[in-house]
Every structure is written in structure tokens, then in C-alpha cells.
Amino acid sequence: MNGAQLIVNAAAASGIEYCFANPGTTEIPLVAAMASAPALKPVLSLFEGVCTGAADGYGRIAGKPAMTLTHLGPGFANGIANLHNARRANTPIVNVIGDHASWHVNYDPPLASDIQALAGTVSSWVRTSRTASGVGEDLQEAMRAAWQAKGQIASLILPMDLQSNTVTHNGQFSPLRAPVRRFAGDRIEAVAQALRDGLRLVFIVGDQGLSVAGLEAAGRLAQLPGVRMFAETFPRLSYRGGGLPDLDRLPYFPEVAIEILEQYDKVVCAGVVEPISYFGYEGIPSRLAERERLLSLAEVGDDVAGALTALADALEAPAYVPTPQDIQLPPGEAALSPQSVGQVLAAALPHDCIVSVEGGTCGYPFFTASARAARHRVLTNTGGAIGQGIPVGFGAALAEPGNRVFCLQSDGSAQYTIQTLWSIAREQLPVVILIAANHRYAILQNELRRFGMTELDPQALKLTVLDSPRIDWKALAKGYGVPSCTVHTNAELQRALANAAANAGPCLIEMAL
Questions:
Q1: Residue 267 near residue 275, CB atoms below 8 Å
Q2: Which GO terms describe its molecular function (predicted)?
Q3: pLDDT-derived band of residue 279, with 50, 70 and 90 as boundaries?
Q4: Structural domains of the chain in order of their starting residue, each with its CATH number
């Protein structure tokens, strides 16, 4: 047995199911070793950002780490954007990064770089293996570091010679147990007392608080006088529909969020960090609420749903009455709009499906419509690095084989990781990619208007319009092996979604907006 076989055996024994890989020469021993651990399924992607985004989506749904395998520093760097999002989502991920042979790296070959520094930008745990006999234990340590109640990213750097060196033991690796979440009772009492004292409280709920149990408890609390509930702006995973409480998201732009939060005496953080503006705008505070106004009910990684339930019980909040499911469909012959896309998609969702949302064009209109849809789960872009929507949906589909996944995707950000289509086609996954094709970076045009440019001049348009030539989405999909169609009206979108539901494989729907 060699070091590479020890690594893959340790990964499989630890409970890692998938290895999302884009290997190179320094990972060849690991590629060869995959045959020794059939429980570890290798999945090839054409770009490292697909690997890391897929590991994020898998981890959010499966609740445990996947493994990525990338080639040296440059290969790992290609995946950093989606690891940034995964870090903000507290997704557990184990990265294995191949390095030059330990006796070769000091010669500074062309692909050498400071992998430790690169990995450190997105990882809570980084280690370079030093002996072939210890690589299995290193892998299990990475798994332990990643699989916490508050998930983390762990990166193991593996020199090529340690992969191929012979080891004298097979390694005894035990399965790892899932982490246990807890909450602090004194925090429950502090928030309960604030309400008993007559203070007006606004809650920002995230993490496990947006599970079914967490939302039902939030729905109970929302009926108490002086209480208002919001979900965090971009949740890692939230349940929607099926009669669950409809928690609006805290607005994205800071001046709107501040105006809401200022109406309350205290801001209660339930599974979220301190609310901070996404960007700094002159004259607007970076903090959305002063620190002295913050109360913490539960931290990220705590049993947030349990904390909300305990608070509702302590205050004897009434039972939550489920909301009805009745989505008003738009006129079929009317042209598509962001609002009608949200309504049509929400009405078409099957029970317990998954929706990966990236982009402002149709994202919030879908969110407003989805409260009355069938029960489903939504994944959003937690870190703001675009290009995660389709890879996250890809990983989510592998986490629950056979379950339908929808990727509601803006056209500009889709191009960052469009190679995901090939991986989805290769695995023949039931993923429906809906491209909101408005052929522009709408968010940048909105920011230009906020900056004071009321009329967008030709120079600004050159950097915000995706035209001349327009992207041919059907040709792209065909090239990657994914069937596709273009729709212009609400009725056409309804038919396209019905056709997608009748087929087990993937499809891409270009929505002309």
C-alpha cells in the first residue's frame, strides 16, 4: 500500500462520499488509488470552481463534508471564489491539494507557489503532510476540523512523493460522528425577559433557524406583541412553502435595512453574525444596528431551532397556523417578467425539491412567490462571489440522488462556471437550469444609478451590457450535452417546466427577459 491508497481509504472510512476533482500530474498517485476505495466516488469537473462549488452544495444538503482534489497552487486558486462562499455558508469541506515532490519543490519549478498562504485565505485548518505513513491520520484530522457544528474548510497539502511512497500499515480508521448542536439557556432567558419588560424586538434568523422546526417556532414568536421576524439576507439553506411561516429577508441595501431595524429597541441575532452592510456607502453606517442594541439568542453552529422553540415555549407563544398554498399564475400569453418567472416556477415546484438561486433579476421575485409553493429548500449565494449557482445545484443533486434541483440563474454569473453543464450531463442528474437572459449586469447598472449616474453613457454600458455578440445559450448547452429551449411567454415557461418534469435528465431553459 502507498500513501495515496492510505489517503483514499481514510477518506472513505471517515464518511466522505464524493471527491470533486480536477487533477493534474502531482495527483496521479491519488487518481490511481481511487480503485482501492470504491465507496469514495470520484466526480470530474472541467474547472476547479465547479469542484469547490459542488462541494459547497453537497455539504449544505448532506450536512457532512465532501472532498475536493485540485492541482497545485494555481489549480486550487481557481476554486477559491466558491470556497469563499462556502466559508461564509459554514459548509464543511475537505480540500486535498497536490504539491510537487518534497525533494523537488525547493528548485522553484514553474508551477510552484505558496499553497499554504492560498489555502489560508479560505481555510480554518491547513496542514502539509510530512510523512507517507501519516497521511491517513492527516486526512482524518482534516475531516474532524471541517465537520463541526459550525462547519469549516480544512485543506491538506499532499506532496507527490508521499502519495507514491510505500507504507507498512493499512491504517485503522473509524467513522466520524456528526457534531452535536446545543444552545445556551441563559440567552433564552435574557431575550424572554426583554420581551416581558415591554421591549420591541426584531429577530434576524439564519443557519438552522430556517429549518422546518426553526421556522415553526419563529411563526409562533411572530404572533407576540412587539416582535418582528426576518430571515438573513442570503441564507445558506432555508425551507420555504408547504404552509411554513413566510419570513421576509432583511433588505440588501443598508439604508432600507437600517430604517427597519431602527424601529425596534433590540435586534436579536438567531444563528447569524452581527448585521453588516455588504458594501460601504458614504454617509451610511457599516453596522446596521449599534452593538449595544444587539441581543444574541443563538450563534451560528448552535441549535438555533431549539433555541427559538425554547423561547416560544418560555413565552407561551400561541401555536402557528400554516399558511395556505395558492399561487396566482400570470396570464399565459404575457411576456416573461421577473415577477411572472417567480410565480410560474413556484407553482411548478415538486415537494421537497431544491432551488439554487443566484442573481438579483429573478431571485427576490421568486422568493416572494415561493412562500405559497410546495415545501422546498433554497440555497443562496452567501459570500457574494458570483459563479456559484449552478455548481451548488450540481453538488446538491448528488447529495440527494433522484431529487429534482432547479438552478434559478442570472446570465452573467452563469458564465463564470458554465463548465458545470458538462458535469451535470455526465452524471445525468435531474437538474433544471433556468437562465434569466437579460443580457446585462443589472446589479452594476443599479449601483451606477445609486452612485449618481442617472443616464448610463456608452462607456458605462460597455462594462455592464452582455451584448454584441449575445450569448447563444442553446448552442452552449448543446455543446456540453444538455438539452435546451428558449421561452418568451409565461405559457411557454410552464410547458418547458412540465417537459423537464417528465424527463429524468438535465435541461436548460433560456428565459428571454
A1: yes
A2: acetolactate synthase activity; flavin adenine dinucleotide binding; thiamine pyrophosphate binding
A3: very high
A4: 3-164 (3.40.50.970), 185-314 (3.40.50.1220), 338-512 (3.40.50.970)
Q: How distant, in Å, are the alpha carbons of 74, 95, 478, 501 from that of 24?
A: 11, 15, 27, 38
- Nearest-angstrom CA–CA distance, 513 and 340: 11
For residue 501, count CB atoms less than 10 angstroms from its CB and return exposed for 0-12, middle for 13-18, buried for 19 or more. Answer: middle
* Residues near 433 by beta carbon (within 8 Å), at least 6 away in sequence: 390, 393, 407, 409, 414, 421, 424, 477, 482, 506, 507, 508, 509
Cα dihedral sign, 290-296-299-303 = negative
Grid coordinates 404572533 are at which residue? 223
Helix, strand or coil, per DSSP, at residue 436: strand
Cite the DSSP H helix spans in 349-457. Answer: 363-370, 389-399, 411-414, 420-427, 442-451
Separation in Å, CA 5 to CA 25, 167, 171, 345, 366: 17, 9, 10, 46, 46
Residue 277 confidence (pLDDT) above 90: yes
* Cα-based distances in Å from 257 to 157, 237, 261: 42, 21, 6
By residue count, the chain amounts to 513
Amino acid at 365: P
List pLDDT tens digits, range 348-357: 999 999 999 9
Measure the CA–CA gap between 476 and 392, rounded to whole angstroms: 19
| Residue 292 pLDDT greater than 90, yes or no | yes
Residue with cell 507527490: 160
Q: Look at residues 413, 408, 416, 403 and name the one whose alpha carbon lies nearest to residue 433.
A: 408
Grid cell of 482 as nine digits: 444538455
Percent of the chain residues topping a pLDDT of 90: 91
The arithmetic mean of pLDDT across residues 401-410, rounded, is 98
Taking Cα atoms as reference points, which of 331, 409, 408 lies closest to residue 370?
Answer: 408
Amino acid, res. 46: L
**Single pTM value for the model:** 0.96
Q: Write phi, then psi, for 268 (nearest 5 degrees).
A: -100, 120
